[in-house]
From TrEMBL:
Name of this protein: Acyltransferase
EC number: 2.3.1.-
TM segment ranges: 46-67
Record organism: Seriola lalandi dorsalis
GO cellular component: endoplasmic reticulum membrane; lipid droplet; perinuclear region of cytoplasm
Membrane topology: Multi-pass membrane protein
Pathway where it operates: Lipid metabolism; Glycerolipid metabolism; triacylglycerol biosynthesis
CDD domains: LPLAT_MGAT-like
Signal peptide start and end residues: none
């Protein structure tokens, strides 16, 4: 009791050193458990990304419109003018920030699941690459953490290589969100943006494309090992046209972050999902994770299951400006075989059985 009173007296005295020493004298019972505090920070770091991705763009758009109706209209006008001038920046390599990519919040994000990045082969800075990322999952947590931040040490593991995670172009039409995404080196998944990175930005570029896209997200569920790839050949043709090597990437545990209600083909709900996917560019999934305060409740916080991302062996691709369908099919088959070998080699190390197979849809 005397210790507590002395500490309280020290706090009231006012100097910084006395306050610090007084706080250090407090019994440990007054401080929260370190592990619990870290877990709370991890949850907050993941939740801020989920909420930002879902609502930041829309919220900032509405705020900008509202500001035009207030005394702050000049600020809104200046930002809108800047938005118009800066409109094409996402298509021209973006505006990455090493400071943002190295934020401490991303280490808490990484440790929540946790997320790991495993390198299997060296990549040459004298070449450009297209990474095919599988599977999509709901939010591509593994793709974002590994390639949109430095939390898992991508630049140290692959020196001289600059990763650019490609996502929906519509995100870059929304104020503030576009800048937030660009700061992590994220770019639009469209022809102009990828062409710039692979043709007019030197070498050492790695464009990360989530090949399955929105269609694949409709099928993701815990324990499911299926990728939408059979008819996805555009990224292979692009690699041939630019002479960029193909690198298969598989994330074990990506589908385990959320549980999703899977509607059967032919049902009204499935038809609605596909219709909205064509209109919006993404698939509205009905999913849930755990609650913010109680782990056994439902919420948008993802389940803390490990996600391990394996970067496979690069497939050397020649530069052919106008590749024939036969050539595209050949390298597409090579890519599928390489991805299946990658999956089979590492599956038993990360919770799967020897009998588990990767389904190519």
């Amino acid at each position: 009791m005397k210790t507590i009173l002395a500490a309280y007296s020290g706090v009231l005295k006012g100097t910084g050193s006395s306050i610090l020493s007084a706080l250090q004298d407090l019994p440990l019972v007054f401080w929260p458990c370190r592990s619990k505090m870290e877990k709370h920070l991890q949850v907050i770091s993941v939740l801020q990304w989920v909420i930002s991705f879902l609502s930041m763009g829309v919220a900032c758009t509405l705020l900008l419109i509202y500001m035009f109706c207030t005394d702050c209209w000049l600020i809104a006008a200046i930002y809108t003018a800047w938005l118009i001038i800066d409109w094409n920046t996402p298509k021209q390599g973006g505006r990455r920030s090493s400071w943002v990519r190295n934020w401490t919040v991303w280490t808490y994000f990484r440790d929540y699941f946790p997320i790991r990045l495993i390198k299997t082969h060296n990549l040459l800075p004298s070449r450009n690459y297209i990474f095919g990322y599988h599977p999509h999952g709901i939010f591509c947590f593994g793709a974002f953490c590994n390639f949109g931040t430095e939390a898992t040490g991508f630049s140290k593991k692959f020196p001289g290589i600059r990763p650019s995670l490609a996502t929906l172009a519509g995100n870059f039409r929304l104020p503030v969100l576009r800048d937030y995404l660009m700061s992590g080196g994220i770019c639009p998944v469209n022809r102009h943006s990828i062409d710039y990175l692979l043709s007019r930005n030197g070498t050492g570029n790695a464009v990360v494309i989530v090949v399955g896209g929105a269609a694949e997200s409709l099928h993701c569920t815990p324990g499911m090992n299926a990728v939408t790839l059979k008819n996805r050949k555009g990224f292979v043709k692009l690699a041939l046209q630019k002479g960029s090597d193909l690198v298969p990437v598989y994330s074990f545990g990506e589908n385990d972050a959320y549980k999703q209600v899977i509607f059967e083909e032919g049902t009204w709900w499935r038809a609605l999902q596909k219709r909205l996917q064509k209109i919006l560019g993404f698939a509205p999934c009905l999913f849930h994770g755990c609650g913010l305060f109680f782990g056994n409740s439902w919420g948008i916080v993802p389940f803390c299951n490990p996600i391990t991302t394996i970067v496979g062996e690069p497939i050397t691709v020649p530069k052919i400006e106008d590749p024939t369908e036969e050539i595209v099919n050949l390298y597409h088959a090579m890519y599928i075989k390489s991805l299946q070998c990658l999956f089979d080699k590492y599956k038993t190390r990360f919770g799967l059985k020897e009998s588990d197979v990767l389904y190519i849809q």
